[in-house]
Amino acid sequence: MNIDNEAIAEYLTIGYTLDWKTFEEGKKYKPRNMKFPKLKTRRDVTISDIKKELENYFVKFAGKKVAVMLSGGKDSRLIVEMCNYLGLDTTAITTGYKRDSRENIIAEKVSSALRVPHMFLELKPEIYSEENLRQGILFCKSDPASSPSPALYYYRDILSKFDVVFTGEYLAFSLREDRFYQPQDNIKRLLRATTFDSIVKEGAREKVKQRLILQNVDSTLNEICLQIIKDDRFKRFDVTKELFNMECPAVDENVLNTRWSLPEKEIGKRILKKYETCSLPCTRSPFPLYFPWIAHYGYKYLKNIVGGVRGGLISNADMGPWCGYEKIHMNIVRNLAEKLSLSNSLDLDFLDSSVVKRKIKEIDRRRDYASSIERLVEVKIWLEEAR
β-pairing, 164-166 with 89-96? Predict the structure, then answer.
């Protein structure tokens, strides 16, 4: 097998591959379970219109066993509330490191208020074992960039008992128009809202940036967003459906076109106000979004590479600031990069503590260096098999 180094550079840089490339040279990903919507924004759309389109979509699952991955946030809660309101056979499922976490406590309150059955699935160390990650990555052999979530793969037997499994991603698209920032130029907006991971050398990172620009030149903002969602999200929906009978909810044209017609923020929160649980507390998306599972259990397969990491990776249960974790994380990345023989492709200058502090201040909440570990481990596992 010939390896597509361009695709690997794209994955390490922005978290997905452009143009549906896979890690296997000359081979593109071909979707099996989904059709892509076309964005045609509508005029004079209101919150009530969006709510109606969402309800029209979810009511299609009447008579089926529905599971909703319920966090402590508003997006997944809105899905649970809506499914319950429509009389669907709904079960809420929360994943976490411990039952007394704030996420699970809030999820239990929501489920209790709605009288919806609730399950807690523990994020055990085995989920992040190299063997489980290997199986999940090789589930989509030529395109590990679209491999399913380790937790979804680990609990696939439980989730397969439901007819449909929803996640909050149905509502929380990362690049909806309200997430884009000024300036007015669409390409500049795109670049400002896109993560360019500093573990990749500047030259390779610049090439990925130019390919991203070329792909989206002369596109409208909605077209740019949809293209990124196709590359970044839809492949994973498509792959995950192969695991169990999971519907791919991000493909409904009416919902997308209605939601995207209203670029204002807090759409989910405003719809939620029309339902019963709007007064209950909710969590906010934390800055170190990927970091907790690395901090809690990543050492189970990284300790042989790094050594001595466990003592420094103390609890991050409150999902608060980095509190010095970035130094530990950067050392993990450095050692892992050397172990993977990727040092020649990576820019390790950013590991200097003063540079790290400066970069942390510059980045916005969505960007997270900890995802670098996840990508590097996936590349390592896939390369071992490919060779």
Answer: unpaired
